Amino acid sequence: MKTKKLYMILISILFITSTVLNAQITRRIERVAGKEVKTKVWKGREIQFVEREIAVKITPSATQTEINDLLKAVDGRVINAFDELGWGLIELPTTKDEILAIDDLLKLPFVSVAEPNMVTSITLEPNDPYFKGTTPATYSHLWALKNTGQTPPTGTNDADIDATDAWDISTGNSDVIIAILDSGIPMQNGSLSHPDLDDPNKIILGPDYIFDANGVKDELGHGTHVAGIAAAESNNGIGIAGVAWNNKIMVIQVFDAYGAGTWSAFYKGIIYAVIYQNNNPGKKVVINYSGGGGGSQQALDAVIHANTYGIPIIASAGNANGGAVVSPAAYSSVYQNVIAVSSTDATDIFSPFSSQGRQVCVSAPGGYGGYWDGNVLRYNGPLVLGKNIFSTTPNYPFTIAFDPIYKDDPYSTDVSQNYGYMAGTSMAAPIVTGIAALMLSVKSDLTPSQLRSTIQSTAEDKGTPGFDNYYGHGRVNAHRALLPLIAPANFQNTAVSGFVTLIWSATNNPILQYYEVERKINSGSWTVIATTTDISYLDNEFRVQSSGFTTAQYRVRQKSMNDVYSNYSSIVTVNGIFNPTDKNIAIVKIPSEYRLDQNHPNPFNPTTTIQYQIPEDANVVVKVYNLLGSEVATLVNEFKPTGYYTVKFDASSLPSGLYLYKISAGTFSETRKMLLMK
Q: For the packed helices 263-279 and 297-308, what is the interaxial angle rounded to 10 degrees?
């Protein structure tokens, strides 16, 4: 027990920043799956790595003879065979120094990369005294999914992801698999053992890449908690509801019983998920990684490989108490398939333990609270565990339960039950992963870039207007993320006085740009005949003037401002009167209020789109200012009739920074912020 406590007292995050020389490790890991861990300075930074293990990447043309020469150069042996990307893992004899061996390997012309098998770890909880709860209470558990302002946890109404509204659209499907790269899943006697994670048709048992001789059995508790958040079995009268509860879970073990792992394990887990998707046509994989550490070329290659095959990776930003974002989340600044997630609390405030930075894409509920005193983020203690995220835990003794943070608090995780509270960006990431799985369940052809842009653009803006380093583009909203993807409903037509009248119900899509109407004459091809200018959230009506005799089919879809199209509506067939050369007439509804929308995208480089609406004819002026109040652009200055308008702003000639844009129309005036990042 003492050994377990020694490892778990500092359950936090391995935080090694590659941008700061001699950065200090905030969590010391002593062993990974029974193997000794060393600490050394390498490339100007302090790192931890598995003793005598080196990850090596060889060129594609390397022969077996050259591989043998490689092993001879350092007296090593292969423990992970070199794969199609060129990566392998070798073990050195006890007499060899790892850093000197790397130098010898890099002298070989067919070796492109050699690096220590660096340690990574879970991002469960920050190590600070405010995690010690002192006030036991009875809580309302799933505030992240549905927050009504319940007390405790002293929440704020609607500070949630609107899960119940999202479930009206989709609860997921089995063709979309959530790959959980973590510490495993509850197993006893070789069988799934948790009542919310025990369906063999739902759970895909993947490999154990930590090699701790226990397969994917979760002895830590972290992987179980993460899996439950993302996709616990639901609507079964037992326990909790997962975000994407009809999606499958793929369990890949990359962390041991003490929350430690390696980038080599992460790499192999990503490769396994990619191979699975490639070998199973019609299946889509989305990866959750609630861990992190310093940068690694092997980890980066894994991210690039997943990106090549269209697989998104949702990663926790880290728990560095406002410090920098860890890898692989940090790779979001370069690769669109990575979504970096920070944490918010039950009042929609940035969690004080969370990492922050420009790499943060979005935030999601992750646990306990703080508050802004006007300038500085303060802790809102003492900790009430009801403010944290409630999810599944193993139904047998597990390591986290022995951590003093939990052990002395009867309202936290208990070894005798199946559920408990945890906090961290580890808990925020699977919420976003669940949302991504729901989105792919609705529209499976989404690219990682489209998936990310939709999640970002539909998030609820928090903190500083527009993008900021804490919340990213905002706190995620599952319902809003699904709305741009669903097909227009109730599509129908009625012939009136020589017109075909097309009618459909609109969705409250927060990033709707327009509806696109397509037509097919007889056996011809589908052709776009018009786009509507009506982006109101009322029923939409579109008329096509017609004459002559033929057969036509119609369908409609919505287009969002991030260039994502929804699924098509059902097809309406019209037999009889029609002339394809006649003019199409759109029925445009009148806005009911003045409105200036947030620009999209934001941040932007170098162009962005601004939308506004006016309920009456007016002279409209839209201008852009810098923070000194100097005008830098006039986008609109003319009389405009009632309607909806879009204007583009090109900032190619301007430096990076925060800008203000203002509309004046009649007596109406409004100003918003936007961020230019070059």
A: 10
Distances from the Cα of 518 to the Cα of 509, 511, 561, 584, 593, angstroms: 20, 21, 19, 11, 30
- Length of the chain as a residue count: 678
Is 573 in the same domain as 604? Answer: no
Decide if 128 is inside a domain.
Answer: no
- Tokens found for residue 570: 């059902």
341 DSSP β-pair partners = 316, 362
Residues 468 and 498 in one domain: no
Please name the amino acid found at residue 630. Answer: S
Closest CA to 230 of 183, 270, 180, 166: 180
Q: Which has the closest alpha carbon to 199: 228, 225, 170, 161?
A: 228
Same domain assignment for residues 475 and 533: no
Q: Residue 112 sits in which domain range?
A: 2-122
The whole-number pLDDT of residue 498 equals 53
How far apart CA 522 and CA 568 sit, in angstroms, is: 19
Structure tokens at 435: 């949302």
- Tell me the pTM: 0.76
CA 550 to chain centre: 48
Q: Give yes or no for a contact between 295 and 285, defined as CB atoms under 8 angstroms apart.
A: no
Residue with the two structure tokens 């958040």 = 229
Q: pLDDT over 70 for what percent of the chain?
A: 81
Asked if the peptide bond before residue 606 counts as cis, ω within 30 degrees of 0, the response is yes
Residue 425 burial by Cβ neighbours in a 10 Å radius (0-12, 13-18, 19+): buried
The residues that bridge with 586 in the sheet, in sequence order, are 542
Cα 138 to its chain centre, rounded Å, is 31
Q: Report the domain count for the chain.
A: 4
Give the separation between CA 421 and CA 124, rounded to whole angstroms.
11
The CATH number of whichever domain residue 285 belongs to comes to 3.40.50.200
| Cβ partners under 8 Å of residue 490, min gap 6 | 503, 504, 505
DSSP 559-573: EETTS-B----PPEE
- Assess whether 559 and 643 both reside in one domain: no
Average pLDDT, the chain: 81
- Give 465-482 as a 3 state SS string: CCCECCCECCECCHHHHH
Rg, Å, the chain Cα set: 27
Burial of 65 (0-12, 13-18, 19+ CB in 10 A): exposed
Residue 170: CB atoms within 10 A of its CB come to 22
Residue 89 inside a domain? The answer is yes
Whose tokens are 């002293």? That residue is: 154
Q: Which residues contact 628 (CB under 8 A, 6 or more apart)?
A: none
Residues 222 and 256 in one domain: yes
Domain stops at, among 537, 554, 586: 586
Domain membership flag for residue 438: yes
Give CA angle at 505 (504, 508), nearest 5°.
140
129 within some domain: no
Instruction: For 100-132, write each residue's pLDDT tens digit.
Output: 999 999 999 999 999 999 988 776 443 322 222
**211 and 312, same domain (yes or no):** yes
